[in-house]
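Entry 14. Ran structure prediction on the chain below.
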Amino acid sequence: MSSAETVSPPATFMKGPLRKYEGILYPIFLYAVSLLIIVTGIWVGKNYVARGWEYVSSDTTQVLATMWDAKRLTSIATEGYSWNGDSHKIQNIAYFPLYAVVEKILGVAFSLSNPLTLLVPAIFFGLLSSVAFYRLARSLLGETSARMALAAYLFYPGNVFFVRAYPVSLMNLLAILALLALIEGKIWRAALWSGIGSAAGPLMVFLSLSVVIKWAVDQWAELKHVPGSMGAKIARKLPLAAALSLAAFSGFASFLLYQAVAFHDPLAFIRVQEAWEKSGGLLQRVYNFFFLKNMVAQHHPAHFVQAITHGSIKHMDMHVHYLINLFMLVVFAGLLWVERKAVPWHFLLFALLFLGGYWWFMASVSGIKATVRLIYPVIPVFLGVGVLRERHPELARALVIVFAVLSFLESELMIEGYWVI
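Output, structure tokens:
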């Protein structure tokens, strides 16, 4: 925290008796602002943007609840998983089960044919994540910087998934809760949250891995001061290590077990990824990984300019989302560098592992990808905006504004069937 912030307390958002509820009311207020950006973008899109090649319907709630992968997630809740062994056909075994489980539970009392039933959980989890993130940010940053970090989190391009029937807001919430538990020294609680999260999406296993590594490092530091053979001391910790690892990876392990029992193939969810146009063999993917082939070698800026100059956006959506994706990865790298000494090392470990796994996905799949949403759970980078605010406040404000503008752009194009997220 900067000395200037220590000397001059920030202006409070709430006055009088409401002041003690600021930790809840302020994130709710800012969450409402983020929803306003999304809704405004959707309205502009429906009224002023030509229909794209993935246009679904004029019914906004139906689009938000069923467009793209959302319908496959819901099919898990209504029909169960399916896998016929054909890795070249998109099947719902590719998707992790947690959000479908939430939908299934809601389906006991409400009709899953009602799009609102599918959307309300995402909106609710997004709201909870905003409150939890603000608590996390205030525990590590000054209050004003925590507000800036919260704004960056809520205005991030891809925040439209707060109102889409996707597990994004749920994954964000679970990642935040796990990180909060870590800084509070509650490792088993962190393992619980990360274990649940590992059933929400494949990249969430890097949160689980970070929790286990954090525990292992702490145990190693402790054992160095305990007399006796290090081998014997480690052996005594192995049962505890196994239990913690099982808890941290419980959701992922359960999904593997289910596939083994139901389809006699615990890795069916990996095999089906070939339906998204795998980028050759292992060596080709390694080459793509190190030379950024699926990111910067496709002349996206030139195609984007050509689409604009020809007065049509019918084919520019791929270039828009690739450019935004590349921009966000550069921003994420910069923010991680800025905050490298301001946040716990295991926060940075989680971010780097998650982004590394994501980058491998980018290298492995050549087909079009809705990508920006996949790195939304990298929560530590948003804390970096708060750290940036303490050093370069104007730059931090500008970055948040850019986030909001891109969020607006993505919302208006998404609703009309452009694959920009």
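The chain has one domain: 3-415. Will compare against last week's run tomorrow.
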